Amino acid sequence: MKIIKLQAATEAARRVPMRLVDSVTGADKTGLSFASGEMRIHKNGAAGYVNANGSVVEIGAGDYDYIPTQEEINTLGTLRVKPFKTGVAASVFVAQIVAYDPNDANAMGMARLDMMVSSVSGGGGGGDNSGTVALLERLTPARAANLDKLDVSTSSLSTKIDTVLARLPAALLDGKMSVAFDPAERQNLATALLDLSNGVEIGLTVRQALRATAAILFGNSTDTGTNSEKFMAAKSAAQVRVTSALDVNNNRTVTLDAG
User: Fold this and answer.
1) Which class for 66: exposed (0-12), middle (13-18), buried (19 or more C-beta within 10 A)?
2) β-bridge mates for residue 231, sequence order
3) What is the mean pLDDT of each successive set of 10 residues along the chain, which is 259 residues long?
């Protein structure tokens, strides 16, 4: 497959090799010329083949080159070239259109990694999108000062870590350090646990589970023996906590109060 730079300027860099043979015998076809519509192309993403506007050059012994126009190689991806000429096999010849220059012997047309920083410009981070400010110009005094604070010495870094550890309470490092909460903080923690959403299971908090359990174990009940028995709050005979309903098949449905 031929690799061609996007909109390559020179014809030599745009040539797509083709081997054209007889559609019946498979013998090499020589001395061919192509009228409009007898050579067509398909660009990546296009709906179908269109008439080619480039030129065909014969190399010899059935070999030809198709030289597309710059307009025909202005889309990244595959470029298909196909003859639509009577007596010529309708083979497809494919080229890949790329963003780099495969004919650049030094760096394939991409920016060289050994390029001086001072020669690299623009478009980077730090809010600079002008595309004209060199990297060194973006190295402000404040940024330089921050870079100076970075210590690449392993021994120095180890010393600094030891210094930090020495300042931590021994109880914290031993896992024995406790944290004291005032009464209000303790109350808030307990309330948060009791009312934690899905604390027992989906749709059931710890508070709801405890209230239902206390009602069944310690509370009064009403309508006992009916198909809708009610269990009252352990400390409030007027508050229904659990309702147990039976259907005609003695299947029980339990409903908790919203509290």
Assistant:
1) buried
2) 221, 242
3) 94 96 96 96 96 97 97 96 96 95 76 52 50 65 78 66 75 67 87 88 89 89 87 86 87 80
Give 54's contacts (C-beta < 8 A, 6+ positions apart): 14, 39, 41, 66, 67, 68, 69, 72
Domains of the chain: 2-98 (2.60.40), 193-256 (no CATH)
Describe the strand order of the beta sheet including 77-83 as a list of residue ranges. 2-5, 93-98, 77-83, 39-43, 50-51
Q: Are 227 and 247 in contact (CB under 8 A)?
A: yes
Alpha-carbon Rg for the chain, nearest whole angstrom, is 41
Q: List, in sequence order, every residue forming a beta bridge with 18; answer none if it has no partner.
A: 64
Q: Name the residue among 138, 140, 141, 142 with its Cα closest to residue 127.
A: 138
Q: Degrees (nearest 5) of the Cα angle 249, 255, 256? A: 160
Q: Nearest to residue 55, comparing CAs of 46, 65, 63?
A: 65
